[in-house]
Amino acid sequence: MSDDDARHDRPIRDLSTWTVDRLEAFTTTQQGQELERIRVVAQSHAYRSDEPQQARLRWAELALNANERLPGDVPWSHNRKICQNFALRAWIIDQLGPAADSPWDPEALAADTLAALTLDPGQVVALSARWRDLPIERIGDLRRHKNRTAHLDRLLDHLPPGPDRDQLVAWSEVRKHLP
Fold it and tell me: Which of 11, 105, 106, 112 would bridge 158 by S-S if both were Cys, CB 3.0 to 4.6 A apart?
């Protein structure tokens, strides 16, 4: 590691040139904005079709790790973390294939998605019909639910028939009506 890289009072110039090993080690000592930079770099590597699948999965796990360690103490930053997690997991499941007992397990993602939704689809339909009359906090809640279900189109085809899939199909339909 160069002197420039070791200095934490200046931003790292180009994390995209780092190896996954180096970036994984660096991630353990970072916080705040550097974690977001790491997440973005790792996610971009995961999306690259010119890398082997195992390497892409490792990059994706690093992106999830960095995302998890980001601050999430206010509703919108917490929601951003959830949405980033769900979107990357759904993309990996859809593009590289599902894997049981891993972040790439469609049923686990379905369960995590349902756990993140605090309203039921019927409530959302009723609220969405008059969303312009709602207090700003309630509109924000509806927006967060819309964002938390953005990945469903990628996920639904990978789920077996059952109650979780049925609930997520209902959410997929309802999200079209959310502000």
Answer: 106
Region of residue 162 (phi > 0: left; psi between -120 and 50: alpha; otherwise: beta): left
Amino acid at 103: P
Tens of pLDDT, residue by residue over 49-98, are 999 999 999 999 999 999 999 987 888 899 999 999 999 999 999 999 99
Q: By the 8 A CB rule, do 7 and 26 touch? A: no
Give the predicted TM-score (pTM) of the model: 0.89
Closest-CA residue to 128 (of 115, 116, 145): 145
- What sections of 70-135 are H helices per DSSP? 75-96, 106-116, 121-129
Q: What is the pLDDT of residues 118-153, one digit of tens each?
A: 999 999 999 999 999 999 999 999 999 999 999 999
- How far apart, in whole angstroms, are the C-alpha atoms of residue 168 and residue 156? 7
Which helix (DSSP H) or strand (DSSP E) does residue 4 occupy?
Answer: helix 3-6
Give the up-direction half-sphere exposure of residue 27: CA atoms within 13 A in the CB hemisphere: 26
Residues in the chain: 179
